[in-house]
Structure formats: C-alpha cells, structure tokens
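Milestone M4 deliverable, item 7.
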Amino acid sequence: MYLPSHFAESDRQVLHRLMQDYPLSTLITQSSAGLDANHIPLILSAEEGEHGVLRGHVARANPVWKDYVATTEVLAVFQGADAYISPSWYPTKKENGKAVPTWNYAVVHASGPLRVIDDAEWLRALVTRLTTHHEAAMAQPWSVGDAPPDYIEKMISAIVGIEIPITKLVGKWKVSQNQPVQNRAGVVDGLLSGAQPNGAAMAALVASKKE
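Output delivered:
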C-alpha cells in the first residue's frame, strides 16, 4: 500500500478500533489460480499475540480454506469511513483556484499466516462469541440456543474456521492532514452538510487529526 508518512497511523489501539467497528474484511489469499479475494467478517482478539488474532469462518463449499499457499501470508483489509472531498470546500480555492478533488478514507491492512480449524466445538464457541458480540445492541438479542440443536449442528457442519495471528498491522488515515487548517475546517463543514453518506464519520476523523 502506498503510504506517505503524513497519512500513516501507527497507534495499535486506533487500528484495532477500526477493525472492531468495521469487521467485514476483504481477505486476500494466494490460490493455485492466482490471487483470490473473499469478504468475511472477522472478530479480533486484541490481547493475543503481538498484534492480535483474527478469527472467523467460511462456507465449507468455499475453496479458500483448501486452495491457498500455506507458505504465503494472507492479507485482511478492513475499510473504515470514506468520502469524496470537493475542492469547493477549501477556502484557499477562492484565493488562488489551486485545488482538485480527492477521496478520504481510513483503512487497516492485517497480515499473517492462515490457519484452518475444522472442529465442531471450536466453531460452536466462535459462532456463539460472534453472535453475542453482534447481537448485543439488539432490542431482542438472538442467541445460538434460540435455534433447534440439530439445525445448529447442521449449520456448523457446513462451515470451516479460520484463524490469522497478525504479524504485520498497517494503517492509513487519509483524512486531509496535508491541508492547511482552514481547508480542514472547510472539509468538516462540507462533510456535515449531508451530501455524503459517510459524511459525519469522516468529518469526525478529519477533526481528530492535526498536521
């Protein structure tokens, strides 16, 4: 990933927070046919290992858990808030016209070896943890025990677990740090105008960063 120093984010807590807030990863692996990309929600165990451990599951019918190069690390990409940035939001545009559009985004790249876990009890524990985590904010949280046991067993038999001990964690926060303070303020105002679907989330990121 192209990473100018002023866009680099190295705070592990910040990186972990994005991964937890946006858990749907793009998992990139090397298969026998070349690069393969799958979109898989992964849950982070932040306190394990040097950078944390990612866990999730894939459909048993998905060849990703069988057709991958074990000697090559995989890459999980977590995409946070992103938004188009209009040059019309820059006060400096009115002064000299020297402004062009750009795109702001926050992203985390997590690399590590892929481990395949085909164990029903491990999967049951993972599915229970995932469910508890994602259902926590629901008015009437669903739990694994709400479904018939034989149905859950059938569903678990149709998936395979994956685990990625993170060996490298890279973050890029392209959130207008390269702009003067008046332009950053203009970007925040523009994003909060309601024109962008992720405007409020990106505005908060822009406001939180300094040069």
